[in-house]
Design a protein that fits this description.
Layout lengths: L20 E4 L3 E5 L4 E13 L2 E11 L15
Antiparallel strand pairs: 1-3, 2-3, 3-4
């Protein structure tokens, strides 16, 4: 039989730190349907966790369509 404790209950220990990292996978060239050229880069978004690696999405970027130095109204689409 365990002894009875009076007063405040003991707080549970804090959970261990969980470190998750999202990183881009290897990029590959793709055809951009808006520009009609091979100017798009895409790849997988990887989640690095203690249990392993998972694909959580995709990223894509076009060097012409997504250029932040060109105002949107002047972009070729």
């Amino acid at each position: 039989m365990t002894p009875r404790r009076y007063g405040r209950p003991e707080a549970p220990p804090p959970p261990p730190d969980l470190v998750l990292t999202v990183t881009p996978g290897t990029a590959a060239p793709e055809w951009c349907p808006a520009c009609k050229a091979w100017t798009r880069v895409s790849g997988d978004l990887l989640l690095l966790a203690p249990g392993g690696v998972s694909v959580v999405g995709r990223y894509a970027w076009c060097e012409i369509c997504d250029d932040p130095t060109v105002p949107e109204e002047n972009r070729r689409v």
